[in-house]
Input
Amino acid sequence: MLRQVAISCLIAVLALPAAARTRPHYGGTLHVEVDGDPMPQHGGIARRLIFDGLTRLGSDGTPVPALAIRWTSENSDHRWQFWLRPGVHFHNDSALTSSAAELSLNRSCGAFCPWTAVHAVGSSVVFTSDAPMPNLPALLAGDDFLIGLDSGSSSFVGTGPFEAAGDTSKVDAQRLVANENCWRGRPFVDSIEIHGHKSIRDQWLDLSVGRADIVEVPAEQLRLAQQQHLNVIASQPVTLLALAAADSSVLANANLRAAIALAVDRSALSNVIFQKQGEITASMLPAALTGYSFLFPADRDLTKAHELRGGLNASALTLAADNSATMQLAAQRLALNLHEAGFNVQVANAATAQHKDLALLELTLGSSQPQSALESMLRSVGVATPVVENTPAGLYKTEHEFLQTHTLIPLLYLPRAYAISGRVRDLRLSSDGSPLLADVSLQDAQ
Output
């Protein structure tokens, strides 16, 4: 018996150094590089480090408490009440109040809010609407509705685990420092330096020489990253590549938009441009989420496209896409598809194009719950109709009715991926594929 106890103690002692090596350390600076702007309204990697929402999405994609600790709905989801977490302060030490939350929410979305009105009531925020809002808790976790304080000199005052330091107007670099009094606990690293507008080539070079700790891996370069033995963490397909068509001017004719939808070659786009990563789709939601995406035909039908276009001689169309090499290449491929269907298409930079008949978009799947995910996706393209049905048949009907307008043509669902240095510990991706940097620690931190 004594011998067994001694052996057990010896094993425990020998195990301590290994556990100590994996235990998170506080301190150090995390270096992150991205191709875009770190602080745009949508999808900026720095935004969720600075700001919190009333809710956030858990690992399963369902809304869980954040700045709101609980909520209830009344009157068939026409009225929602969210009670604020007590004791929360903004980075400038002012208290989070229901009035401050109301002002922030009204400022963030203007006339395009999912609600008709929002009011501060005691320590709670009340939303009311003429239409039902069954998905409001999930929608409030989105970038549009993060709570910030209008401080006058800076618009980057939130309640999140990091606060902006230095000149926040610099789009190429942002330095964030740990919020020592964050309501959800101090983050492990002391600071994060995010450098934007870095090409993928430069990001990977900086990672290889130790100047960067986390860099992006575009879907089309996942295979190359694996061949180069980069330490890659990737999400499920969460980014929808889609073609948006204006329903005005030249494309006011519905047959022309339908012809465009039939002329696109998703297989070539997937195989040639995106190196067979992700999945081909003609549905707004991925197959794993609904099980009905196969009901939306994704095959090209050039003959039918010619029939629908008929003798209509559409004037030259402008296809706008982000100025990244891949998006421009994908746009050129789509322009070639449409040329074969009799359309004259010119590709332009989305940032400088004065007119856009077509636009190549990247839309993020905000939730892994089909009902709220579909409403969030519709809102991202300007459709404010609430998704009330929560059955596969009801969701399919809602999606089918919208896609029949051919103002949005889904093409591919792509994963999001990042490569990390050996000093990074505990990096995880959220349900929308964004990196949870607040949970990261550094191995060499003291």
About this structure: The first helix runs from residue 2 to 22.
